[in-house]
Amino acid sequence: MWVFGYGSLMWDGWENARGCIRRARAELSGYRRVFNKPSIRNWGTEKCPCPTLNLVKADTACCCGLAFEFPDYREQEILKYLTKREGRDFVLHKLSAQLEEGDKIEPLVFIYEGKNLIPSNGVSDIAELVLLASGTAGSCISYVKGVADELRRLGINDPAVSVLWQYLTP
């Protein structure tokens, strides 16, 4: 069983306690990252939501992230944990991805399909929300930094993340 991470799943170590047997860089074609999912608990509040990452379809795009492999017998445990963590408006998709080594996999990918999306007129709108938001897991800027640091460590340049991070840290 594989799970694809494109946001905080890539860097917070959740997989270690759940028996991950392999962690590999992977590409998910036809999707791109966007900061449009409001976190109102972990990284923000209802009054001041943190824009967290989501995926949107984009025919010519490719989202690079991390794929985590788990033994099949742990599938129910992993799904229960991720469903609770991600929230009820995330829909689980089984999509085609390619590992850096070339192997094709079909990881489970959580994509937010709720109605409460954060509208944006550009990076300045998102940055303003990031600077104000904080929740039970920490500040929204810590969330963005965690994702930006992990992408940099992996050698992945994703404009949705790098442009926002540059805007926040001139």
Care to describe what's here?
With 170 residues, the chain is of the alpha+beta class. It has a single domain, classed as Gamma-glutamyl cyclotransferase-like (Hypothetical upf0131 protein ytfp, Roll). It has helices at 75-86, 123-132, 140-154, 159-168, and strands at residues 2-5, 22-39, 50-69, 90-94, 97-99, 104-105, 108-112, 134-135, 138-139. The strands form three sheets. Strands 1-3-2-5-6 form a five-stranded antiparallel β-sheet. The model has no long low-confidence stretch (mean pLDDT 95).
Number of domains: 1
Biggest sheet strand order reads 1-3-2-5-6
Overall radius of gyration: 15 Å
Mean pLDDT: 95
Contiguous low-pLDDT stretches (5 residues minimum) are none
Under CATH, the homologous superfamily reads Gamma-glutamyl cyclotransferase-like
- Share of helix, binned: 25-40%
How many angstroms separate the termini? 41 Å
Helix segment tally = 4
Alpha-beta content class = alpha+beta
CATH names the topology as Hypothetical upf0131 protein ytfp
- Secondary-structure element pattern, one letter each: EEEHEEEEHEEHH
Largest sheet: 5 strands, antiparallel
Number of strands: 9
CATH architecture: Roll
| Shape, per Cα inertia axes | globular
* CATH top level assignment: Alpha Beta
Strand content: 35-45%
Topology:
Layout: E1 2-5, E2 22-39, E3 50-69, H1 75-86, E4 90-94, E5 97-99, E6 104-105, E7 108-112, H2 123-132, E8 134-135, E9 138-139, H3 140-154, H4 159-168
Antiparallel strand pairs: 1-3, 2-3, 2-5, 4-7, 5-6, 8-9
Helix pairs in contact: 2-4, 3-4
In short:
The chain is α+β, with helices and mostly antiparallel strands and 170 residues long. 28% of the residues lie in helices and 36% in strands.
